[in-house]
């Protein structure tokens, strides 16, 4: 009988060799690519006359640079057009499946792979994108990699990588109304810090996590990287299997697959390198006030004073006060916002949009506020439209866009202007993240973004439920 974590078991099953330097050569079951981090990798293959070893194990989509309004080709932005043409050519030349615009499955890479059933428990997954940690929601070991590693995976289907330690993060108890998976992960990062996860995989467990649906689990695992962890995962259970069943790439031989997946879950007596516990009852709707995802507070709290912070966090807090234009001790509720963005691989899925629409129903976006919804993928958009969610958003004064990363990092026309403040359902609030060098980002749940949109200020969504 094995006595290990899912991480250990999956790692062991994919270990090809221990390299002389101590790293593991890890077999990668599924490789996902997008237009930003793949061009150079393919260029390096071409230079060396190499081919893609297992083209059927790589799947591509376009997400970062695609416009969300006018998607007519060629794109108005010549650089964006060049990037998509390059990806199209690379996929064609090397025999890689590309879920392009209009394919019915295009979208943010971390949204589409689970939707297609490509992401499965027990897999090793790599993608040239830090938020690859998202796929861990299914009990996969999913690693974000750099461009030279994208080349390595294309050429060899393996990766040289150091083994991680595992921290068990147990969250128990019921979430209050108006408190979501996004608040749980912002709370965890706020508590542990943005660097605590360095060298670790985060295993999320406990009754709160078990009660979450797959979209919510993805929100949690997605932001593992913002807590410093290279990957995060949740042991597969019935919720996982129910989500995957009958998806296009789900195993045809279903029962044996489920049995195998079950055997990979962490054993009850598995040994962890570290363990921490949280109580869901102590979590409020959480909003970031600063310039890292760790600078978050409950919506009913005040921006911390320097003296309240550990010495190691004070310099960054001082920098954040200045950049964000907030005063220590100021209540975060009531802070005016100008742009409201719902979308991204953190919170652009169907259950996010349902919850956002529930809050938007019968309300109006405040005059002067620009608010828009960007579904995470073409299937999310179709599903939302089938349910009439787009009509709720449009009636409330939100724009309803086409799928992509959009203003999460603003590599397309969706950008903040000047010092605008955004309420954003995305995952990073770094300086200049949303397209303007001075733009300011407040991270929060999609429901909280709607609350901000209809009031024009940071507002506790619990008051609107
Ligand atoms: C463009 C890409 C390399 C980047 C990432 O690695 O995460 C982006 O997706 C992001 O969210 O910042
Ligand atoms: S939605 Fe944002 S975080 Fe996710 S892959 Fe795109 S840019 Fe990165």
Structure description:
With about 475 residues, the protein is of the alpha/beta class. Helices cover about 30% and strands about 15% of the residues. β13 and β14 (about 295-300) form a beta hairpin. It is globular, with a radius of gyration of 21 Å. The mean pLDDT is about 100. Iron/sulfur cluster binds next to α12.
CATH fold-level label of the largest domain: Aconitase, domain 3
Going by CATH, the architecture of the largest domain would be 2-Layer Sandwich
Are there runs of 5+ residues with pLDDT below 50, and where? none
Class by alpha and beta content:
alpha/beta
Estimate the strand proportion: 15-25%
How would you name the CATH homologous superfamily of the largest domain?
Answer: Aconitase, domain 3
Bound molecules: 3-isopropylmalic acid, iron/sulfur cluster
Please, how many domains? 3
Total beta strands: 19
Radius of gyration of CA atoms, rounded to a whole number: 21 Å
Mind summarizing the main beta sheet?
A: 5 strands, parallel
Helix content: 25-40%
CATH class (first level) name of the largest domain: Alpha Beta
Family: Belongs to the aconitase/IPM isomerase family. LeuC type 1 subfamily.
Cofactor: [4Fe-4S] cluster
Function: Catalyzes the isomerization between 2-isopropylmalate and 3-isopropylmalate, via the formation of 2-isopropylmaleate.
Organism: Gloeomargarita lithophora Alchichica-D10
Secondary-structure topology with pairs:
Elements: H1 6-14, E1 15-18, E2 24-27, E3 30-33, H2 39-48, E4 58-61, H3 78-94, E5 97-99, H4 109-116, E6 124-127, E7 141-144, H5 147-156, E8 158-161, E9 165-172, H6 181-192, E10 200-205, H7 207-211, H8 214-222, E11 231-233, H9 238-244, H10 254-264, E12 274-279, E13 286-288, E14 296-298, H11 314-324, E15 339-342, H12 344-347, H13 350-360, E16 370-373, H14 378-386, H15 389-396, E17 399-400, E18 421-424, E19 440-443, H16 446-455
Parallel strand pairs: 3-4, 3-6, 4-5, 6-7, 9-10, 9-12, 10-11, 15-16, 15-18, 16-17, 18-19
Antiparallel strand pairs: 1-2, 2-8, 13-14
């Amino acid at each position: 009988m094995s006595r290990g974590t899912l991480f250990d078991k999956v790692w062991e099953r994919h270990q090809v060799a221990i390299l002389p330097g101590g790293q593991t050569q890890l077999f990668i079951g599924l490789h996902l690519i997008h237009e930003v981090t793949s061009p150079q990798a393919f260029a390096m293959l071409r230079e060396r006359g190499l081919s893609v070893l297992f083209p059927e194990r790589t799947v591509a989509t376009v997400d970062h640079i695609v416009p969300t309004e006018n998607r007519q080709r060629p794109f108005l932005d010549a650089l964006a057009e060049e990037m998509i043409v390059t990806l199209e050519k690379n996929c064609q030349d090397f025999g890689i499946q590309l879920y392009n615009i209009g394919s019915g499955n295009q979208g943010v890479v971390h949204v589409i792979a689970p939707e297609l059933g490509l992401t499965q428990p027990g897999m090793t997954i790599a993608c040239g994108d830090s938020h690859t940690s998202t796929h861990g929601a299914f009990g996969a070991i999913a690693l974000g990699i750099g461009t030279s590693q994208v080349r390595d995976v294309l050429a060899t289907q393996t990766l040289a990588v150091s083994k991680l330690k595992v921290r068990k993060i147990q969250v128990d108890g019921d979430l209050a109304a108006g408190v979501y998976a996004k608040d749980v992960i912002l709370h965890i990062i706020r508590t542990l810090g943005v660097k605590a996860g360095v060298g670790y995989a985060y295993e999320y467990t406990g009754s709160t996590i078990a009660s979450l649906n797959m979209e919510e689990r993805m929100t949690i695992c997605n932001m593992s990287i913002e807590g410093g962890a290279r990957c995060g995962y949740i042991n597969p259970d019935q919720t996982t299997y129910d989500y995957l069943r009958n998806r296009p790439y789900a195993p045809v031989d279903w029962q044996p697959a489920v049995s195998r997946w079950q055997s990979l879950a962490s054993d009850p007596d598995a040994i962890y390198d570290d363990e921490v516990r949280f109580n869901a009852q102590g979590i409020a709707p959480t909003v970031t006030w600063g310039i890292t995802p760790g600078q978050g507070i409950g919506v009913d709290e005040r921006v911390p004073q320097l003296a309240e912070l550990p010495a190691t966090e004070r310099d960054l807090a001082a920098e954040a006060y200045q950049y964000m234009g907030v005063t220590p001790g100021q209540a975060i509720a009531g802070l005016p916002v100008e742009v409201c963005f719902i979308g991204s691989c953190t919170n652009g899925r169907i259950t996010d949009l349902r919850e956002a629409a529930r809050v938007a129903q019968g309300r109006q976006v405040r005059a002067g506020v620009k608010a828009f919804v960007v579904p995470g993928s073409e299937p999310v958009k179709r599903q939302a439209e089938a349910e009439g969610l787009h009509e709720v958003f449009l009636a409330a004064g939100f724009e309803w866009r086409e799928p992509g990363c959009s203003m999460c990092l603003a590599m397309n026309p969706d950008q903040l202007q000047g010092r605008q403040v955004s309420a954003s359902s995305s995952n990073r609030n770094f300086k200049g993240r949303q397209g303007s060098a001075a733009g300011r980002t407040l991270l929060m749940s999609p429901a909280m973004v709607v609350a901000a949109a209809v009031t024009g200020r940071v507002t506790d969504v619990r008051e609107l439920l």
